[in-house]
């Protein structure tokens, strides 16, 4: 008998650090023992997402106590991953936990006794039952229906017991006209049966297909595997794993994590169990520290209590409001903080509905979901609030709400109309029955336009914003009724619509006018003479219309500055600190310094002009 040679000690230093990835499965055999013999005093640091505690293998016995942990729950709370839900389907066809004879009888119930006896000879084991084409066909039909109702347009991974099962799943899905699917499995040689050989795919082709699966718009919707892509595979567009394979311990935990990646309009990952392994999830995960795997996956049915709580919370906003009066509901959210609270409450309710639908437990809430979705959209439109959006709502929830809105010919549900579109906006106001609704629509249309255009002409639009606040305050104090508020706001709307006309009347283009307004505002600051005094000095001139008075001196300065700024604004000028930005700033300061009225606030005014130039040039 050949004597086994011990691996030699190579280095006894205590200053060696060994960092081990996948520490739960790589440090328990000969190579690991040899490494520890070679460097006996090294410090070993293990990294793993699935530490294990078994009699023959223990991560903590091998590496020592935890330095730091990051649990599944913490990852979800931080928004790094999504919660995973699971549900069992077709329990009569589950392999694990069922009597094989009973499964056989259910799968082949419509066959004759002679046919069943013949088939039974072929399918006598759990593996064989799992691969039975008749059983797989029924599961495929359920998968298609489930995917269309609950998952589309996101994607799915089907995990099977063997390469043969992969091939059968593929053929049954194709026979049932399912969306496009691909098969990925290891190995493949000329001795394989024809069924498996038919689905051999070269490695390079496999890579191409996998990349296509990851793309949201690619027609490939199903990825069918048995052993590959269960760990380390990252496809955020995958929302559901249809599991028809026995998986336990770290294999199960790593496999189901394929669906927990964040993606647009994806609120959770889902595992649908056809094999029966999830019937006792805690036993399957018993080797892990329970704190680490707490809520690793939770049953869909457990969402019902949370759905009820979230429903009650969102409905509290309407305790004193008539849900059938859309305008009244919208006016209830004038306060921005209240709008944000409503947004969070509605999205939470919609998320729970997304998880449970199309289960019948969602039925009592469907009508209110549609109504709340309609209110949510109307609130967004009225207040032009970009924080209130459909981002994050599940695909099927958005579809339900959109379909409901589509059949509602209500102006509040149409996209907001700009006040610059005179005919359409005036028609929107005219159609509103109540003065309060008209005032609300006008106020928030003005706010939105002023905020959007503020950078183009900060002095002009800031003055309009301040006027609007004065008007709103007068209405709140009872000094204005809604009719007076509406009339005052019409004046602001007309000024916004006529800004170009005003610039032209003053002999300026819009960019020069923006600079002129900035200079004029500064010239009328607290320590400068008023417009009336400036008029007495002859600094202002009237060009035809008394309404359009222009300060000749500031007009010439604005034109001169803008011409110089345009000349200096070469390609990518905003990135050229030494070549453009510094010389531009010096030029502005030299020009302004020539005017005594600007010297006290020279730095601030120069900064404002530079900011304006960056916004409009």
Automatic annotation (TrEMBL):
Which Pfam families does the entry mention?
SWI2_SNF2, T1R_D3-like, T1RH-like_C
- TM segment ranges: none
Record keywords: Signal included? no
Q: What is this protein called?
A: Type I site-specific restriction-modification system R (Restriction) subunit
List, for all copies, the residue spans of the domain called Type I restriction enzyme HindI endonuclease subunit-like C-terminal: 327-526
Q: Which organism is it from?
A: Halanaerobacter jeridensis
Residues in SWI2/SNF2 ATPase domain copies: 5-116
UniProt keyword annotation of GTP-binding present: no
Which top-level group of life is the source organism from?
Bacteria
This protein's UniProt keywords: Restriction system
Region entry Disordered, spans: 520-539
- Which residue ranges does the record assign to the Restriction endonuclease type I HsdR second RecA-like helicase domain? 205-274
Q: Which GO terms describe its biological process?
A: DNA restriction-modification system
């Amino acid at each position: 008998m050949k004597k086994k040679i011990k691996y030699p000690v190579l280095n006894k230093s205590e200053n060696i650090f060994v960092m081990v990835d996948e520490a739960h499965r790589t440090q328990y055999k000969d190579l690991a023992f040899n490494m520890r013999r070679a460097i006996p005093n090294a410090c070993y640091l293990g990294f793993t997402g699935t530490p294990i505690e078994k009699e023959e293998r223990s991560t903590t016995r091998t590496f020592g106590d935890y330095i730091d942990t990051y649990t599944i729950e913490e990852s979800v709370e931080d928004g790094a991953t999504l919660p995973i839900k699971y549900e069992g389907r077709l329990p009569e066809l589950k392999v694990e936990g069922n009597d094989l004879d009973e499964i056989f009888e259910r799968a082949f119930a419509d066959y004759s006794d002679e046919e069943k006896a013949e088939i039974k000879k072929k399918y006598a084991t759990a593996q064989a039952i799992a691969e039975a084409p008749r059983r797989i066909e029924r599961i495929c039909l359920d998968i298609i229906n489930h995917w269309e109702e609950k998952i589309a347009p996101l994607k799915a991974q089907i995990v099977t017991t063997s390469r043969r099962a992969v091939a059968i799943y593929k053929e049954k899905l194709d026979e049932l006209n399912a969306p496009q699917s691909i098969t990925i499995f290891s190995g493949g040689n000329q001795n394989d049966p024809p069924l498996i050989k038919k689905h051999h795919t070269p490695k390079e082709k496999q890579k191409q297909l996998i990349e296509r699966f990851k793309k949201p718009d690619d027609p490939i919707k199903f990825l069918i595997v048995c052993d590959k892509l269960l760990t380390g595979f990252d496809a955020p567009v995958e929302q559901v794993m249809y599991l028809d394979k026995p998986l336990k311990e770290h294999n199960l935990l790593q496999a189901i994590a394929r669906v927990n990646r964040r993606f647009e309009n994806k609120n959770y990952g889902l595992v649908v169990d056809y094999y029966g392994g999830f019937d006792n999830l805690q036993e399957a995960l018993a080797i892990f520290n329970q704190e680490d795997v707490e809520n690793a996956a939770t049953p869909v049915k457990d969402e019902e209590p949370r759905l009820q709580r979230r429903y009650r919370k969102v409905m509290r906003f309407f305790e004193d409001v008539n849900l059938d009066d859309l305008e009244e509901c919208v006016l209830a959210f004038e306060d921005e903080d209240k709008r944000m609270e409503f947004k969070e409450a509605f999205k939470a309710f919609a998320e729970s509905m997304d998880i449970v639908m199309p289960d019948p437990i969602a039925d009592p809430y469907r009508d209110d979901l549609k109504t709340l979705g309609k209110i949510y959209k109307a609130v967004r439109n009225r207040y032009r609030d970009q924080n209130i959006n459909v981002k994050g709502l599940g695909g099927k929830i958005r579809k339900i709400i959109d379909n409901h809105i589509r059949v509602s010919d209500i102006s509040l549900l149409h996209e907001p109309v700009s006040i610059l579109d005179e005919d359409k906006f005036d028609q929107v106001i005219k159609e509103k029955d109540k003065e309060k609704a008209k005032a609300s629509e006008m106020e928030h249309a003005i706010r939105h336009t002023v905020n959007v255009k503020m950078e183009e002409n900060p002095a002009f639009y800031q003055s309009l914003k301040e006027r609007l606040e004065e008007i709103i305050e007068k209405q709140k104090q009872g000094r204005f009724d809604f009719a007076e508020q509406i009339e005052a706001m019409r004046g602001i709307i007309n000024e916004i619509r006529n800004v170009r006309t005003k610039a032209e009347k003053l002999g300026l283009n819009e960019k020069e006018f923006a600079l002129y307004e900035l200079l004029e505002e500064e010239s009328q600051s607290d320590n400068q003479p008023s417009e009336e005094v400036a008029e007495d000095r002859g600094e202002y001139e009237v060009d035809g219309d008394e309404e359009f008075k222009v300060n000749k001196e500031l007009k010439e300065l604005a034109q001169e500055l803008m011409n110089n700024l345009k000349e200096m604004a070469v390609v990518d000028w905003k990135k050229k600190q030494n070549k453009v930005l510094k010389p531009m700033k010096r030029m502005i300061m030299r020009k302004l310094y020539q005017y005594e009225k600007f010297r006290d606030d020279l730095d601030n005014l120069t900064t404002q002009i530079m900011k304006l130039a960056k916004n409009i040039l």
